[in-house]
Every structure is written in structure tokens, then in C-alpha cells.
Amino acid sequence: MKNLEIKARYPWTDKVVDILIGIDAQFKTVEIQTDTYFDVNNGRIKIRERYGKDAEMIQYFREDKADIKECSFSLVHVKNPESVKTILTREHGIREVIQKHREVWNWHNVRIHFDRVKKLGEFIEFEAGIDGDNSEEISENRIRELMIKFDIKTHNLIEQSYIDLLESLERSQR
Predict the structure, then answer these.
(1) pLDDT in tens, 44-80
(2) Which of 34, 69, 140, 153 has a Cα-to-Cα distance from 94 of 20 to 30 A?
């Protein structure tokens, strides 16, 4: 599977709700997520555990750049995450664990995530799925439209994943 995405630091304010209502975004869910990342040579692999929902193993490949970026990924539902984490830990070792509170909204083919990430702060992500009905061009245009609506400038974008930001923070605190 493939999508286009951006991530930026973004505080949750009353303005956010007004924007979401104004664009007719649909609220989907709130999730408490724990992402366990493993130390792999190619891309990133994580087990995502969500309170009250099945866990998922996600492998993804994405260029680290502060712009709209393409992400290719595979997702597998996991019934027994502890067993899978044990196997992956033996083979690769745990890189880091990220804990977050995520609010998810949908707008066309774009998932809008408002994340409160432990130790890192508040963020917004737009993930536009690429499929037969939604080309890369349509998806990129929708992300750019949302960037305008939410007043996100290109220089506000974050190139890295949460795991990289947390590791950088921890290195700076040593």
C-alpha cells in the first residue's frame, strides 16, 4: 500500500475544531497507541498496540524530508502482540517505544491525525491514501489544501518520524 503524508508540530486549539467543521471532516476515533519499534536495517518495523483494538505490525519505507513524502507500507493484524514482539526482539532488538494519544478525522481520502506524543508534544499528520480512485496528484493537492486551511507552512514540516525525534531528544539530554 502507498500514501502521501506530512507531519508538523501543531497545538490543539479551538481553531482546530472550527477548521474541521468548516471542511466537513468526519470524526473517526480516539486511540491510545503504543508503538514498539525494532532495530531493522531497512525501513522501519513497529508493533502498534491500541487500547480496545487489535494490534498491528507495520513495516514502512519513507524518505525523511520536510515536505510531502511518499510512504509505502505493509500492515498485518496481530492477535498476539506479545509473542510477535518477543520474536522481533530476539531477532532485531527494540529500538524504542513511542506512546501517544491520537485523534483521527477523515476528509476525502485523507486521514487527519492529531497526536499528543509522550515526551515530544503535539503534532498534526495528514496521510492521503493512494488507490484507484485517488491518484498521487489528487492526494498531493488535498494535502496542500489542508496545509493552507490549517496554516501549515513548508518550513513547519518535520522530516523525521516520532522514533527519530525521540532518539534525538534523548541524545541531547545526555
Answers:
(1) 999 999 998 999 999 999 999 999 999 999 999 999 9
(2) 69
What range defines the domain where residue 27 resides? 2-172
pLDDT of residue 174: 86
pLDDT of 14 reads 86
Q: CA-to-CA distance for 49 and 52, rounded, in angstroms? A: 9
| Contact of 100 with 116, CB cutoff 8 Å | yes
Q: Give CA–CA dist 152/29, Å, rounded.
A: 23
Maximum CA extent, the chain: 49
Count of domains forming the chain? 1
- Tally: H helices and E strands in the chain: 4, 8
Q: Which residues of the chain have pLDDT under 50?
A: none
Place of cell 508503538: 35
| Long-range contacts, stretch 101-105, CB < 8 angstroms, 24+ apart | 101/30, 101/31, 101/32, 101/33, 102/30, 102/31, 102/32, 102/33, 103/27, 103/29, 103/30, 104/27, 104/28, 104/29, 104/30, 104/31, 105/20, 105/25, 105/26, 105/27, 105/28
In angstroms, what CA-CA distances link 115 with 79, 104, 135, 138, 173?
25, 9, 26, 25, 23
